[in-house]
Amino acid sequence: MEYRRASSLIMYWDSGELTVENYLESRSTDEESENALALDPAAVELLDRFAEWTDDAAVIAEYPQHEPDSVRKAIELLAEDGLLLTRESAGREERFLAAWANWGEEARFFHFGTRNAIYTGDSLEQRRSDARWVRETGGEPPAIFKTYPDAPRIYLPRVFRPLTDDFGAVLTRRRTHRVFTGEQVNLHDFATALFYTFAPMQLYDAGDLGTLMLRTSPCGGARHELEGYVAVLDVQGVPPGLYHYNAESHALELIDAAFDRDRLHRVTYESEMCTPSAFVCFVTAVYERTMYKYRHSRALRVTLLSAGHLGQTFVLTNTALGLGAWQSAAFRDDEVDAALGVDGFAEGALYMFGAGIPVYAEDGMPKGITRAGLVDRAALASAAE
């Protein structure tokens, strides 16, 4: 029989053992199952002989010092564990490779490796039991607010702009803006945008999980692991620089007064959208807040989704304020982390969004966006062929 080594294998050292995992192998959603297997050098060597479709008889012949049946059994065990494929079992992998051809191993492993996690249930009794277990195994919950107590601080006004626009009108008016006038953003608009994006609307007692905040954006388990840092460029009454937004105090804490447009231009890959903005927010994740309650790697999905929720709240709030906003993940991660003073491990940058006074074209669309006219469907179909 012919076999080939699976293409979806990840190998790493775990507790001194070389471990292999086929992230395409399905996991049970009813009971804990483990796809990762420890391999000895002989098994690794055997796997290496099946880089292409190879008849097992040819490989068995390469091990004259071993009984043929023992080598055949070892090959069959590797196939049972999903490390070797047969012609009959390779179809799923081939469909996967075709569908995910444009994305690398990192994305594939994360997406498929975090599928089919087991959930414990959502009854009140189960949630309380889970919370007790988290407290017993994790100790005191992490702080829900981050602060820089020694940093110079600017307290922002709490006289917020009323967000009275029709909700449907705000939804349909929202667009990504890339061109700005260069005028200063009003301080109250700026404070309103930060408050409704990052500040808690309420706090609640979560029992064993401690006190948690509730923002305008949803977040898995109300962990609210996301922090906001603001590069101020053109905001009325706020000196330019890089700040941390203290969500508890509704204040800016100065990190770097020298952070300017040139630095922003560099860390955002010379983006013509980011640099002209009046202010830019970098969103980081404090991973401990999520990991404290959720111990499965699937929770990282929720953190990424939460960043998207926060970004949507930001752009809708700015739209309601009459500002133009955008979102992007195009930044130099290491350089942004360094600018923020975070290590990228306990806390690291995930996302960014910004806003300014927008420039509109004559048709009411953001400048740089051309409204579609008549569409030649036949030409489109021909171009796609």
From TrEMBL:
Q: Where is the Nitroreductase domain?
A: 172-356
Xref: SUPFAM superfamilies: FMN-dependent nitroreductase-like (SSF55469)
Which Pfam families does the record cross-reference, listed alphabetically?
Nitroreductase
InterPro entries linked to this entry: Bacteriocin_Proc_Enz, Nitroreductase, Nitroreductase-like, SagB-type_dehydrogenase
Q: Name one GO molecular function term.
A: oxidoreductase activity
Name of the protein: SagB/ThcOx family dehydrogenase
Species this chain originates from: Nocardia panacis
